[in-house]
Amino acid sequence: MPRIRLQSTIAFIAVCCAALATSASSREHPVCQAHPSRSGYAAAPNQHPACPKYRANAEPFGDARPLPAERTFVSPAVDNAIQAITAKMKDQSLAAVFANTLPNTLDTTVSLFQQYPTLSSYIITGDINAMWLRDSTYQVLPYLRYMQQDANLRNLIHGAINRQVQYVLSDVYGSSFNRDALSGTGVFDGDSTWRSSFLGTSYNAMLNKIVYERKYSVDSLSAVMKLSYGFYNATRSLDAFDSNWVAAMALIIDTLQIQTQDTAQEDKNGGPQYTFQRLTVEPKDSLIHGRGYPCSYTGMIKGFFRASDDAQIYCFSIPANAMAVVELRHTAEILTALGQSALATQALTLAASVDQAIYAHGVVQHRTAGQIFAYEVDGFGNYIFMDDAPAPSLLSLPYVGYVNASDPLYLRTRAAVLSNANPWYFSGAATDGVGGAHYGTGWIWQLSIAVRAFTSTSDTEILKCLKDLVDSTVGTGFMHEAFYLDDYGYYSRPWVAWGNSFFGDLILYLSDTRPYLIYT
Ligand SMILES: *[C@@H]1O[C@H](CO)[C@@H](O)[C@H](O)[C@H]1NC(C)=O
Ligand SMILES: *[C@@H]1O[C@H](CO)[C@@H](O)[C@H](O)[C@H]1NC(C)=O
User: How far is CA 288 from CA 308, 313, 390, in A?
Assistant: First the structure.
């Protein structure tokens, strides 16, 4: 998920000042208050359109949801669940953060919910006005369990699946999308530099104006499969899986298959199907020669961007391929139920060869950590060990559903991720955690802390993660994606719905699996 660029900020200032001018309150919610010593959002977060939406008089660790009339979607089932769960919680700060974060996607990001002629939901990320395939899946994931009690909520999620299908069919390499195809040529919205800087063959994507950004990643396509399976698993109904859905899955499976080709095979077969270059000062936002470093066949699927939307170093991401294995198998289950047995077999065959390749090429002997999963490999025998904060990450492999949390290979990998063997692991006086190239050294992501809790088998560690997550909201009641080591008040984003949903989902997970941790 990219950091907001200056252009967007300028656009936001215009929006916010108009809104603030109409606000009568003299007290602002902490999310809108300045941090004394820093720059960026933390210094001037009230230049952000999220701020006027929040209650001007909310107390720290209080109810900071938008007023009911301003919520973009209301689910009685979710609101009832919040009431029932928080009533049992003893820690009032934890309860407040849960009550604010769980509904944040519904409260603030449902930009469109169309019921006719087809269900279609456009769900923005929060402070970036576009729908990411990846984010939108995680944003609605915690609500799946409430669909059976709330038909409208079920329709909303069905509509999100329909949107994802529409987007995949319009450009399978797109990572985030506009609500409507933009009109005109050469004239784009406030995020023009994201779009107009495509070079080379990807230039053509610029003409497909439904695409907001075209950072192909294996985990984005896996996220589409994940949401569909979550819907199926929760409802055991096939009514969201029409012929468009089957066509989108066929395209995803074909594309992932095509991307198992190595660099030499691509050249022999007429060149790469996907390239990406951008004019930028940041190497993490572009690929050398539009293709990245060469790679040699493994059986895994090539990808070019991580879940943070940063460029990969080597093309075979172990966490992204692990997620693909899990979700291809899930998709095969739905395809089988639909009678699409040939496609189901194709998905299962690909999953099996990727799974085998992960163990053949993605397990390495690390100098200090022993035998562990690598983060990325190139198939020539080179690997990089690190972790990137958002799921899918090495830390998240049990959450992804690929390994058992007590698997010794995973446990060695996990210990290495949470140590100085990982270049993006940071440890300070107040806390420790994993960041990544996206924000650079010293920045810890809340998503990674939540993943750590999701995958932990230790009550003590889970409680430490909950404390870190609540403390790092600095009283705003919301997640902020990343904060600077030991300075929770210096954070990267004021309004990030993925982080909010993920925290809400973590509490729901703990409520099921370790209720004594949150209710006593
Ligand atoms: C499927 O649903 C069951 C029961 O609600 C749940 O325990 C399980 O985690 C779900 N699996 C997936 C992959 O979503
Ligand atoms: C994980 O492994 C443990 C020990 O072998 C086993 O008891 C447990 O059922 C496994 N869990 C899963 C989800 O497979």
Answer: 18, 10, 24
Domain boundary among 389, 423, 457: 423
CATH of the domain at 273: 1.50.10.10
Give the ligand 2 atom nearest the CA of 398.
Answer: 13
How many Cα atoms are found within 13 Å in the side-chain-facing hemisphere of 377?
25
Cβ distance 483 to 473 under 8 Å? no
Measured in angstroms, how far is the CA atom of residue 234 from the centroid of ligand 2?
23
| 502 in a structural domain | yes
* Closest listed ligand to the CA of 234: 1
Which domain covers residue 264, as residue numbers? 216-423
Q: Same structural domain for residues 272 and 346?
A: yes
pLDDT tens digit sequence for 93-136: 999 999 999 999 999 999 999 999 999 999 999 888 889 999 99
Q: Which residues of the chain have pLDDT under 70?
A: 1-60, 182-208
- Ligand 2 contact via 404 beta carbon (within 6 Å): yes
Q: How far is the CA of 233 from the centre of ligand 1 (A)?
A: 6
* One domain, residues 260 and 334: yes
Residues 89/484, Cβ–Cβ less than 8 Å: no
Contact 79, 156 (CB under 8 A): no
Query: pLDDT tens across 371-405, in order?
Result: 999 999 999 999 999 999 999 999 999 999 999 99
SS3 85: helix
Kindly state whether residues 412 and 446 are assigned to the same domain: no
Same-domain check for residues 365 and 437: no
- Closest C-alpha to ligand 1, atom 12: 230
Name the pTM for this structure.
0.89
154-212: per-residue pLDDT in tens? 999 999 999 999 999 999 999 998 888 765 443 333 343 444 444 444 444 455 678 88
Q: Does the beta carbon of 406 sit less than 6 angstroms from any atom of ligand 2? A: yes
Three-state secondary-structure class, residue 452: helix
Task: Report how many domains make up the chain.
Answer: 2
Task: State the distance from the centre of ligand 2 to the C-alpha of 407, rounded, in angstroms.
Answer: 8
410 alpha carbon, closest ligand: 2
Q: Which ligand is nearest to the CA of 512?
A: 1
Q: What is the enclosing helix (H) or strand (E) of 377?
A: strand 376-377
Task: From the CA of 229, give the closest atom in ligand 1.
Answer: 14
Question: Could you tell me if the CB of 233 is within 6 A of ligand 1?
Answer: yes
Q: Are 44 and 34 in contact (CB under 8 A)?
A: yes
Question: Is residue 230 lining ligand 1, measured as CB closer than 6 Å?
Answer: yes
The residue whose CB lies within 8 Å of the most ligand 2 atoms, and thus the one to mutate among 326, 402, 403, 404, is 404
